[in-house]
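Exercise: predict the fold of this chain.
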Amino acid sequence: MSHEIDDSTGMPASAYVGEAPWHGLGEELPRGAPIEKWLNAARLEWELARLPVQYLAGGRLRTMEDRFVLVRSDTHAGLSVVSSDYEVVQPRQILEFYRELIKDRGYTLETAGALDGGRKVWALARTALTGTAHKDGRDQIAAYILLATSCDKSLATTAAFTSVRVVCANTLSFAMDDVTTNKRRNVKVPHTRWFDAEQVKEDLGVINDAWSKFMVKVRLMTAYPMTTDVAPYFFEDILLQKKGKDLSQKAQREHATIMALFNSAPGQDLDGAKGTLWGAVNAVTYYVDHVRSAATDRLDSAWFGAGQTLKEKAWAEASALVS
């Protein structure tokens, strides 16, 4: 199942507002639906129980004192084995994170759900911040906050700023410069620490400054020409595993696909994207979000895995060109 949306209950664990996601699964909700409705529609009403690991040896049932199974309360499926210092984050906590932001700051939930049997849970909400990449006002970008966690140690509880290009739903983390230089605390909360939602919100309180810096770079990129003669070298640089080496056969296929998207993907005909560095960045993000096949789940890869890494590399290369 390429999308890996959790279907443990017999229904896809995904809910959304507006246009259906690429995988076409999940329950559509009206804007402004309460958190309780989101929990039900996204099939996130279950909890994780931490039960001791037991095993049969020598004819006796024995218990490990320092290892526990994380078990779903609804299906009783064991999702992972953890140590005694592992801090569990419940699915409900991911959605509850947004309750005050919705009430006091006008955020709106856009999507929520679970992947891989419930091992990853996410929710994405739109903030009140928007902007346009180009002076013609047609290339709108909106700011979102993504919160996700895992119970299999594959992902720390992560709060991240994400931008969405409205015309084609491309996603790009816009505060990555701050995150990668450790200017923000507790953007990622390891499961050895208690998840303090209020502390995370406080540390994410500089969103306005991050958004402004992001939009300045975007507009510089829309003014930076990227011809079809130069673009291949830009894409080659971000696909290379090592400088000075040739592209692998897989990377060559990816390169050809991204070049085609540079000319034809949704939104590439807009003035700020056509033949510009901004268009090159969006060719990569569109490829990752909507085209690229991933070893596991495309959504998982685009937000947390190899796809996100490729998008970050494209953004970093483009940022260096306009610095």
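Check your answer against the key: The two ends are 42 Å apart (CA to CA).
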